[in-house]
Amino acid sequence: MSAGASTFVIRWINFFTMILAVAVVCFGVWMSIHRDECRKSLTLPVIGLGALILLVSLIGFLGAWKNVALLLWVYLVMLCLILVSIMVFTVVAFIITNSGSGHAAAGLRYKEYHLQDYSSWFLKQLNNTKNWKQLKSCLVKSEQCNNLPKRFKKLKEYKLAELSPIEAGCCRPPSECGYPAVNASYYDMSYHPVSTNKDCKLYKNAQAIKCYDCDSCRAGVAQYMKEEWRVVAIFNVILFVALSIKISPLIAVMVD
């Protein structure tokens, strides 16, 4: 590919990338306005990612448009740094999310999760008192547990439901406790637990308590985070490939 053609490709690739970056930033701003406190924690990374993509793409676009070697070199260095960062984060994400999975329970269509199955990084984050206090507050405000009776009006429907990891871990006691379910939000606590699991004593029917202090709830959050990290890691692989493609025409221009 000639230098002129490479410059043309760089210019238009970065033009469309800038449009994408503006969309990402706008989405981050929209999240900060319309999301609750739990989801607002994602707004800064989203806006930051969009801003970084916009900056790098703008430098590449101007460098290719004006044929300024300095800007193209800056663009190349920044692009390489981003690629290295993406690669490191992706490897770490796959390592952290490599452990932990659900356990089948008799009579249930969903799985239960055990905190000790997850990586030490997840354990450190979720056992941190300050971190868990914030997460717990978000879980209570999200009303996921309070919405269960609205979704499953009959006990049979509830028992056949496929609950999410957070619903399974935070909204109900572990099945090994042996508490009979009266409905989707109430368990008969008059029965003595058949298990020594400390979560059995921590669970309460009160909407603000439930099993939010249980290890099973932390495990449910860990599973949710694991799934989210895996999605991000897969997205990063795609992003890494896409950004790597941008380097080829740039190198053609620089060595010309």
From TrEMBL:
Subcellular location: Membrane
Keywords annotated in UniProt: Membrane, Transmembrane, Transmembrane helix
Transmembrane spans: 12-30, 42-65, 71-96, 231-255
GO biological process terms on file: auxin-activated signaling pathway
Pfam family, one: Tetraspanin
Domain of life (superkingdom): Eukaryota
InterPro entries documented for this protein: TET_plant, Tetraspanin/Peripherin
Topology with respect to the bilayer: Multi-pass membrane protein
GO CC terms, sorted: membrane
UniProt family annotation: Belongs to the tetraspanin (TM4SF) family.
Protein name: Tetraspanin-10
